[in-house]
Recover the amino acids of this structure.
């Protein structure tokens, strides 16, 4: 979403749009073409096959509502980047494999208390 926000700012917009997210996903996923490194047709083909596999795999799945990252990292690492655009995220201090059912229930309870605005603002 950072890349999408940069795109929106460069276009003098206050909010990101779906096109910003799509273009950011492409840029972050395969990288922007640079004069010093043109992406070959073969690299584009391989990346297209790879990414289409994600599209097929996640086509019928709903977007993510809650992402619980139990690795100690406070980032997405491009995991389901597009599907997590409006996800609530939690980064518990209990790491995998120690993350228990009680920890999971605590994360769900906290999620239930959140005010989900889907990009909007409370005025």
């Amino acid at each position: 979403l950072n890349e999408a926000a940069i795109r929106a700012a460069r276009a003098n917009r206050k909010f990101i749009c779906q096109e910003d997210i799509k273009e950011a996903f492409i840029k972050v996923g395969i990288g922007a073409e640079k004069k010093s490194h043109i992406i070959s047709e073969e690299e584009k083909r391989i990346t297209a096959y790879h990414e289409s596999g994600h599209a097929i795999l996640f086509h019928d799945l709903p977007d993510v509502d809650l992402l619980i990252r139990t690795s100690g990292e406070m980032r997405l690492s491009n995991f389901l980047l597009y599907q997590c655009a409006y996800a609530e995220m939690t980064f518990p201090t209990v790491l995998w494999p120690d993350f228990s059912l009680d920890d999971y229930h605590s994360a769900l309870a906290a999620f239930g208390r959140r005010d989900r605005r889907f990009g909007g603002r409370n005025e």
